[in-house]
């Protein structure tokens, strides 16, 4: 049984990789951006676990900037993806403009909360 | 006319000089009232009184039941110190009684009380008010069959040669009643105690039950320094001050050393110097505090300030103020309990200073110096100073602990900028 689950996992992983290779470059760039944001958030959480949460507002501000960035990037990816039937009629420029505006508001709030 | 004017100015300018007695600038007593049972004491104790007058004291001798004596008139004290050489007085004359003597001491004046083997209840009461208790048996004297002084006419071993203290050339002769001190009393001190072979009993009658006062619990000479720095000397032997004892030689029974002169004169001279504030008197002046690096005294400090506290302490040498040198004067920064306790360092010229950091607590603090040492007047200085917390713009602007968060926020902004460029201009 273990061998078959091992083989199944490997097969799954291979199919995932080949399917992912077929995605357009634009989306891959967005995925990279999201990964960078989440990675930065993880670094901050580990740092807080070591040092303690003393300037808690700064910690929240830093983590939320990463999380907010990731969330907005994911929204952009959803709206820009041509295979997504829900947003078929939305022009990608409109999606990008929303993305930029929301990021501006996010960074304004983050700078205020950073202390 | 000019001569008259000259004499007048001279006379008026000398008046303040006559009144400079027992002031804070010159703490030695000047005018001393000596109450005696009869004036024969003046001549039989002339050596002791002579030593006092030669040091500048103005002695006034009065009989203890003289109806004209009084310690104060119109609310002002006439004398700086009182000497009671009247062990058998039943009632003081004039306006003196136990309460007025206690008030006299309470106002900071000094007292010497000498009892003897026929001490009256009044003298015992005065001593009890001062904190020592004479033996209740009215006929008891201190007897010591081992440490007695060999003499020609005494056969009952009541003349004691005591050398239970340091730095005397010869033993001190004592003949009289003993007293005991309450061990809980921290103000009273035994100067000369009887040896462990002494006891207090009637020498003329047989002992029916064991004596209540024995051994070194018997104190022969005690001093009391009150909290207002008034000093009291209490002893149970008036003859200790007499010329006869001053001049006689001493030979302790059982030892072959024969001292030419007893240690009475030296001992009593030194202890009178202490009682009348010629020695062991301290004053602390010039309390200053300021921030390190500044020189004027601020009205308020902030937490975590560095400050410096300084004080000058002088000791009276009998004629002038000398710098007091010691390494155990401490200052407290006190609010309900001492937050900082620091030993002051001295420059050997009487100037003491210490530097410390204001604690991380705000409130109203006091700089307190509480200095009580054996034989010296107690110093109790206190200066109040408030301490405030940080103002809102006195905190650190950027916290080093939060640098990663600052970094991540800015890196997100940079990443967003780069990403928009890449996203827009890639195919």
TrEMBL record, chain B:
<protein>
    <submittedName>
        <fullName>Dolichyl-diphosphooligosaccharide--protein glycosyltransferase 48 kDa subunit</fullName>
    </submittedName>
</protein>
